[in-house]
Specification:
Blueprint lengths: L13 E2 L1 H11 L6 E4 L7 E2 L3 E2 L9 E2 L3 E4 L1 H4 L8 E9 L13 E5 L11 E4 L28 E4 L9 E2 L10 E3 L7 H9 L4 E5 L3 E7 L3 E2 L10 E2 L2 H12 L2 E8 L3 H11 L5 E5 L9 H6 L2 H4 L5 E7 L1 E2 L3 E7 L4 E6 L3 H20 L8 E6 L5 E2 L5 E9 L2 E4 L8 H5 L3 E5 L5 E2 L4 E6 L2
Helix pairs in contact: 1-8, 4-8
């Protein structure tokens, strides 16, 4: 997973957003490929190209319920002068032995059944009397209810061109074709194709296991009563949901109190099920910012190359960040700030790309576009910081939602985009073109 330790810099170094992200992506590597059963591979990324071993469909088959006939036998057929053909039997889907259709004959055929030898086309049952001699019918009765329909004669009221209503062998994919390219994310349609060409297992990068943990003695689980000075833990829920949305298998750990040894032991206990760990809170400069206290000296006790580097980034929100690896397997750990908006913006910018990299994807970032700013007044941004404001995007326009405060969860819930204000811009006037990160 991790080929090198993260870079470090002096305590006063102010990292740019791009430097921090580059460090993360240079350290995190795709998970080793494994062979999985098809349904277990859902959401995973394909490692190798998949070649079609057998054509789809593997034989000519009917796309309709009707009668397999020769073209010449129904040429010129009409309701006034129907073609009368001898019915020689049924051809059902999955039937191994096929009937021979000769001149003046027809075989009753079901959708998906192979076209029998001698037949050149299929006449839908609605173009016939269904063998009942009572004019056009609307459907084919079950054989158990009308066994006489499989023999006798059928009246055909319309002609059919050659190979009408016939699905040709290989019309979907041909043997030797490339069915799926390496790098494809396997969703339901891709899994259907793999099953259709006979693949029961497939080699993929597994979905990464991400453990999310929030810190803070003030945090209370939803549905519990709040005491004085307490708030509900929303970060762990938001980030766990975000990790799942990114494609990971995510586990949420209940909030850990502000006690360094407790936090460290909890993290060590969770390492067994983590390809990536995410903490939120405790990375600033306060006396109770325990993530820094618990993890800043990990590299002294673990294998060489481990350790967490705590940084200040030239961004708002999300200035305090931590990144590194922990434990014997050098499991990557991203330590995010505790304010709800700061943690979520940090996730989108740094954690989501790390998850997508672990999955083996080439394109790991949210899509970006340019949009016209619609606002009542100019947006202000601190000099030297790249600011990410919440907004709603629609048809080339973006509108800010809420203010710049890093605690505004309600505004975040209505946003589907991040408005990016560069480091060298302190004011953005309405009508200006801005860069937008699309979240939805």
């Amino acid at each position: 997973m991790s080929s090198a330790a993260p870079r470090t810099a002096g305590q006063d170094h102010l990292w740019s957003v791009d430097e921090h992200l580059e460090d993360i992506l240079a350290t995190v590597r795709p998970l080793e490929p494994i062979e999985l059963q098809l349904l277990d591979a859902q959401g995973c990324v394909l490692v190798d190209d998949v070649t079609v071993p057998v054509s789809l469909p593997p034989f000519d088959n009917s796309s309709m319920d009707g009668y397999a006939v020769r073209v010449a036998d129904v040429a010129g057929a009409s309701e006034e002068f129907p073609a009368s053909l001898e019915v020689v039997g049924d051809v059902a889907a999955g039937q191994a032995e096929l009937l021979q259709v000769g001149p003046g004959q027809a075989a009753r055929i079901m959708t998906g059944a192979p076209l029998p030898p001698g037949a050149e086309t299929v006449v839908p049952v609605e173009w016939t009397d269904g063998g009942l001699g009572e004019g056009p019918v609307t459907g084919m009765r079950a054989r158990s209810l009308a066994p006489e329909g499989a023999d006798g004669h059928v009246q055909v009221y319309r002609p059919a061109e050659a190979r009408a209503h016939v699905r040709a062998k290989g019309s979907d994919v041909k043997a030797g074709d490339r069915a799926l390219e390496a790098g494809t994310v396997l969703g339901p349609p891709q899994i259907a194709l793999l099953a259709a060409i006979g693949r029961g297992t497939v080699r993929v990068h597994p979905r990464p296991r991400v453990v999310v943990m929030s810190t803070g003695s003030e945090l209370v689980q939803p549905d519990e009563d709040l005491g004085n000075g307490q708030i509900y833990d929303s970060n762990s829920f938001a980030l766990t949901a975000a990790a799942r949305d990114a494609g990971a298998i995510a586990y949420r750990v209940g909030a850990v109190a502000d006690e360094a040894e407790t936090l460290r032991s909890t993290i060590e206990d969770q390492l067994v099920r983590a390809d990536l760990m995410v903490t939120t809170g405790g990375v600033s400069v306060g006396a109770y910012d325990v993530v820094k206290e618990a993890l800043s000296y990990v590299g002294d006790e673990d294998e060489a190359g481990s350790g967490i580097d705590f940084r200040k980034l030239a961004m708002q929100p999300g200035k305090p960040q931590g990144f590194g690896s922990i434990g014997p397997d050098h499991t990557p750990l991203l330590a995010l700030p505790g304010n709800p908006v700061s943690s979520y913006v940090s996730f989108e910018l740094f954690v989501r790309p790390a998850i997508r990299t672990l999955m083996g994807l080439d394109d790991v970032h949210r899509p970006r576009t340019r949009a016209t700013l619609t606002a009542d007044k100019a947006l202000t941004s601190p000099k030297g910081r790249r600011q990410f404001l919440r907004g709603t995007y629609d048809d080339g326009k973006v509108t800010p939602v809420g203010g710049a405060g890093s605690h505004l969860v309600a505004a975040l819930a209505h946003a589907d985009a991040l408005i990016v204000v560069p480091e060298d811009v302190e004011s953005v006037e309405p009508g200006s073109e801005v860069e937008v990160v699309l979240l939805g």
